[in-house]
Each structure stands twice: as C-alpha cells, then as structure tokens.
Design a protein that fits this description.
Elements (H helix, E strand, L loop, with lengths): L6 H25 L3 H18 L5 E4 L5 E6 L22 E2 L2 E2 L19 E2 L11 E5 L3 H6 L22 H4 L4 E13 L1 E7 L12 E9 L7 E9 L1 H4 L5 E7 L17 E2 L10 E2 L10 E8 L6 E5 L3 E6 L11 E11 L26 E9 L5 E2 L5 E4 L6 E7 L3 E7 L9
Antiparallel strand pairs: 1-2, 2-6, 3-4, 5-13, 7-17, 7-20, 8-14, 8-18, 9-10, 9-17, 10-11, 12-16, 14-15, 15-16, 18-19, 18-22, 21-22
Length: about 425
C-alpha cells in the first residue's frame, strides 16, 4: 500500500533527514579518529595543563626527566578551591606532637632522613627552589593521556582501601587491590608516624602500582570515608616510569569525587621549598645491600585543626585544611600502616607486581621491607606506641605481614611479597 504524506508531514521528514545528515557529517570524523575528536581532546589537555602547571619563577630539570617548577607559594593549585579564596597561608604549625612547634629545630635537607643512610630527592642534584616558592612536578600532556580520562588524572579508583575486620571480601578486592598492613582502631587518633623502608618494586604492567604508606582514616568505608595518606609509590600510569616517588593522597568521600594525589587538585597547602610531592626518592634499598628509609609524620594541630605532614626529622611540608573533611575535622578512628598493590589479573593469573622489596617478611632485614617505630598521636598531642596492633592481608601466600617489637625499632613489622609464586597462582 502506498504511503500518503501531508505537506506538514513532508516538512517533518525533510527536516529529520537534514538533522541526520548533519549528525552524520559530525560523527564520521569522530568514528574515524578524525580532526574533531583530536582537536577537542587537545583543547581539553591544554586547558587542564594550564590549570595544573602554574607559571614558575625557576625550573629545574631532574636527571630522571622530570621538570620541577618553583612556583610562588600563593600561586599553588590549592588556592583554586572555592573555600580557599581568601585563605591566609599558615606558615608553621602552632603545635608539634609533644609540645609547641619550635622552628629552630627544622632540619636541613641532608639531615632530614629518618633512615639508616641519608636520603633525598633526585632533582636536588641540579638545583633547589628559592625561598617563597614551592617545588611542583610539572605535568605533561603524556601524563594526562595515560589516564582513563583527563578528569580522572591524579585520582585513585573507587574503593581502593583496606578494610581489615568484618568487611565483605568481594568488596575488599573490588578493582583487584591487595594489602599487607598493620592497623589500630577503637580509639581517637590525632596522627601517626613511621619510618618506612624504601625500595623499587617491580610492576608487571602499567595500570598496576605498588606503594607503602600510612592511612589516617575516619568515617565509613562504604561511601563517606575520610582518608589522608602518605608514603612512597611506584605507579607507571601516574608518572610514566618505574621510579619510587614520595606521594600523598586525600579524599573525603571514599575516593568518589574529592581528593587526589600530591598537588594535582586543590586541597593540600604546601609551605616547604625543599621537597616535591611526586618526585623521585634517592637512593633506594637493595637486596642484601644498603638499606634506606624515610620518616613520615602526619598530625592534627590542636589549635587550628589542620592536618600537617612532616618528612624526615623536621621538614614540615604543609597541611590539609580541616574544612576538607567531615569525620577528620575531629579525629581519626583508625590508623593503618603497610603496603598496597593492584592485582589486575590481566592474563588470568595473579600479578607478579611486587609489594615492598618483593620478598616475604620471614626473610628479615636487608631482604624484606619494613616499617619501624610506628606510633600514633594521642589526645594530649603526644607520640606514643600504639596499643593492640592487628594485621590484615587478603592472601598471605601472595603478600604477608609479621609484627615485631624491640628496644631500637619500637613497634615494627616486615611485610610484602612477590605476588604470583607456586603458592599464589
């Protein structure tokens, strides 16, 4: 039967065909990886780079290929936060654990290691940032293009945190993240400290990482977790190489929308001109060779309520303003120390990505990685040994943790492992 159209229907059909033609003309280049798609992506990349890379007063080329920009302290990314528009930078904490902050005790970079041998950052070989500036690792277009999306660059995947006690194992392993940690809970905690052995674990593939860190936690794991994290990591996706780097992270909503690594979003306010977040640490420990470690302290200033971070003996790096958080505006309810890796099982088997040194705890000093002198900050602003320390690991035959205690190292633990092995297929 022949179809009959009124003049009105005809106009609608013609208009529809025109719209389809326009859509076709727009979509063809997109489908073919054409000019529209490429130019839009380039525009987004350049916009994001402009937001992250502030005009430097000086730039330093690091031997590992990084460029460290010395940016005026008032121009750092933190101040793009809507609540930091009129913020006055707090140039020193009011209190340090165990008393008033004493600026005269701030150490020089060469003295700042908490470890068995001096440790620094690789970029220092070629220069330092002047007073009044902070060092920021420059983000490149390659960094952004490695991310799953430009908007996700510098952010962790959702639900990457260890949940030690009665958590659903399926929830723990979502995203393939595995841990070997020591932890305390059940009290109010106002900070934590540890000396962390530094290695360069092998990563199986670029979308995996390995890290050793401290977690300062408040809230519930499901949706509103507050977390402050600091330590070292190897993350090819984030940095484009396998170097061991100092890092921080924060979130106030279980890694969903808030927070980021280092200075890759507004939030953390840096005051230190010596240490660059995300920059390579040097030198590193070797199997049956010299051992190196870093000391990290995170604590809540009792007066202002901000969470401060210190690297080494007294290199105070900066702070997370209290208003970034909900639960952590008061105190933390759990502290964790230890390692984390991504187990993507890309070939259907457990990853060979190493945690720590890549060796199990029972191998001991010089072979297995460790945390020593783990401490918490109590309600009286005192550093003290934690009580009732527990351990947690999803698969102890892949990565494990063993506690210890003695006069020199206080509370300590060895941790880590090789990942895939005959007992961890």
């Amino acid at each position: 039967m022949a179809a009959h159209f009124s003049s009105g229907n005809r106009r609608e059909v013609v208009m529809g065909l025109k719209i389809l033609c326009c859509l076709f003309a727009f979509l063809v280049p997109l489908c073919n990886g054409g000019r529209v798609s490429t130019s839009f992506q380039n525009l987004e990349v350049q916009k994001h780079l402009k937001r992250l890379n502030k005009p430097p007063l000086k730039s330093i080329k690091s031997p590992d290929g990084d460029v460290i920009d010395c940016v005026h302290i008032s121009h750092q990314p933190a101040f793009e936060h809507p609540l930091l528009g009129n913020h006055t930078v707090q140039m020193r904490p009011n209190y340090h654990p165990e008393g008033l902050f004493d600026e005269s005790k701030v150490s020089t970079p060469s003295e700042s290691s908490g470890g068995t041998s001096p440790i620094t950052q690789l970029w220092h070989v070629n220069g330092r940032c002047p007073e009044g500036t902070i060092p920021i690792r420059r983000t490149s277009s390659k960094d952004l293009l490695r991310a799953s999306s430009i908007q996700n660059y510098g952010k962790k995947n959702h639900k990457t945190f260890p949940q030690p006690k009665s958590a659903d194992p399926d929830l723990i392993n979502q995203g393939g993240h595995q841990h070997a940690i020591a932890y305390v809970e059940g009290d109010k905690y106002y900070g934590a400290k540890a000396t962390i052995n530094v290695w360069e674990p092998r990563i199986q593939q670029s979308n995996e990482f390995s890290l050793s860190q401290i977690w300062i936690l408040g809230g519930t794991f499901a949706e509103d977790l507050n977390s402050i994290e600091a330590g070292w990591q190897v993350s090819p996706d984030l940095y484009g190489d396998n170097n061991t780097r100092l890092f921080t992270y924060w979130t106030s909503d279980s890694y969903q929308a808030t927070g980021c690594y280092n200075l890759l979003c507004s939030g953390f306010i840096q005051i230190n001109n010596e240490i660059a977040m995300g920059a390579s640490i040097y030198p590193l420990s070797g199997y049956h060779k010299s051992q190196y470690d870093i000391s990290i302290l995170v604590w809540k200033d009792p007066k202002e309520g901000n969470w401060w971070m210190q690297f080494g003996n007294n290199q105070v790096l900066g702070y997370w303003p209290a208003f970034l958080f909900s639960y952590l505006t008061d105190s933390a309810s759990m502290i964790e120390w230890g390692g984390e890796v991504v187990n993507s099982e890309s070939d259907g088997q457990h990853t060979t990505t190493q945690m720590g040194s890549g060796h199990f705890p029972e191998e001991g000093f010089g072979k297995s990685s460790y945390f020593r002198n783990i401490q918490i900050v109590d309600g009286s602003n005192n550093l003290r040994a934690p009580k009732d320390v527990n351990t947690f690991t999803e698969q102890s035959n892949c990565y494990d943790v063993q506690l210890g205690k003695n006069g020199d190292w206080g509370n300590f633990f060895y941790f880590g492992g090789p990942g895939r092995n005959p007992n961890c297929p």
